[in-house]
Amino acid sequence: MLDLKSGDYFRLNQTGSLIWSDITTPATFSDLLNGFINRFDVDQATLDADLKAVLSVMLDKGLVVINPR
Between 37 and 1, where is the model more confident? Predict the structure, then answer.
């Protein structure tokens, strides 16, 4: 993935690609969490922490934004 503003290139693994695909349309964190719980054999606490970590990096890099409702 290329950030056209900064010129930075980001490589996503399979899970990162799934997250990116799922956030191309607006979704709540709960929607994302529940969608991944249904796809992967992982406990909710681990998934919650991992998803927050990935989204935090994306947010810090300006790749995603949070839209308050």
Answer: 37
Domain ranges of the chain: 14-60
Do 50 and 57 touch, CB atoms closer than 8 A?
Answer: no
User: Distances from the Cα of 1 to the Cαs of 14, 28, 30, 40, 62, in angstroms?
Assistant: 13, 23, 25, 24, 13
Q: Would you state the structure tokens that stand for residue 2, as one six-digit string?
A: 């290329």
State the Cα–Cα distance between residues 8 and 3, nearest whole angstrom.
Answer: 5
Which amino acid is it at 3?
D
Give Cα separations from 21 to 25, 26, 45 (angstroms).
8, 11, 22
In tens, the pLDDT along 11-49 reads 888 888 888 888 888 888 999 999 999 888 889 999 999
